[in-house]
Amino acid sequence: MDKLDELSKTIVKFVNDREWDQFHSPANLAKSISIEASELLECFQWDEEHYNLENTKDELADVVNYCIQMAHALDVDLYDIVLAKLKKTEKKYPIAKCKGKSTKYTDL
Predict the structure, then answer these.
(1) Cα 32–24–12 angle (5° rounding)?
(2) What CATH number labels 1-76?
């Protein structure tokens, strides 16, 4: 078992032990991801260079936690969907056109 599988199983057990899965519809989890992502962004609100690393790690962990829960709720494999999306993105952003640029693919 790899680390991502182990982490996913630990999170699912944590949620199941508390009977919280009843609240974890895909819509509720998407909302939670957005809320936690906003809290992560808040870590950098006033100063992008001097931020509290511990708070930032906690908020990043919350985002990842909810993403893993959403993958479980949708019955999708995170490893597979991330690789599939990366392949799509590779086609949109070929190295020869985008290397070192932040230009959107439609403007390359």
Answers:
(1) 100
(2) 1.10.287.1080
